[in-house]
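sorry to bug you again but im stuck and you know this stuff better than me. below you get a single protein, a line of residues and a line of whole numbers that encode the local backbone shape. mainly i need to know what kind of three dimensional shape the backbone takes. anything you notice is useful, everything is just below:

***
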Amino acid sequence: MNGFNNPNFIPEIVERQSIEIKNNIPIPTISFFCSSWGQSVSFDEFCEMAVDAGFDGVETGIPADDKKSAELIETLRKHNLTYIFQCNLSGEDFDEYLTAYRRELERAAELKPVLINSHTGKDHFCRAKNEILIAAAESISQSTGVCIVHETHRGRFAFAAHVTREYLDRLPTLQLALDISHWCVVHETLLEDQSEAVSLALQRTAHIHARVGHSQGPQVNDPRAPEWQQNLQQHLIWWDFVVAQRQKQQKRLTITTEFGPPNYLPTLPYTQQPLADQWQINTYMLELLRSRYGRTSSRINPSGV
């Protein structure tokens, strides 16, 4: 029986933590970030929209050069927004990838973001190569004081629940950016048959990408729609666990609402008209999560992660 047919599926450890949230156990300060992915307006206008919507910061790509870095930081400071950088590289040659990876992380860390979210490695790199990349990130994090987390993402080392579990078992300091929607489509389930791997990943999560996936894709067309409520509720249960875990550890939590643009957002054939509005969905998710966890957000300093 899969998650769609079993609405009562809640791994025991997740259920316990979810109950703690509902019983109003104190939770950590949570900061909410808005992804710049897919935005067609100027960065200044995007930041203004983020502030008006109530976000505490933005998650965006690493600037291409020093000039763009200065412009980006100036705009963020103008709007009093904190920021997360996302490191996303490609390439077939491992040595070239490693060199570029170190360079990108070092450049990002110099700008002192709240944290760096890394799309690390490749699903086809051997474990030894991916662990070299993870070790490089750990070294840069320690030398700069900037937290670097590794996203659970298709095509990367953490593309699947059971594979990520192996890395987590081997690397006790490894921290994740949880985008569990990817695992839903990789495994074509709501992960009810991998509760141990999921629970371990939740315990090691420092950052959340709040997008809702399903068995055939990483993004439902609209989380407000009744046909996706079971999927939404399961993702909320997973996120509940992370919130409770961070409270237990007395650590802050960052959450980025990251519903993507077309064609990540499903579209109609021929016209390519999106089935929903990306901005409205992401602001809906912001209000949903703030309502669920309380208005505890604040614009944190990098040292608070």
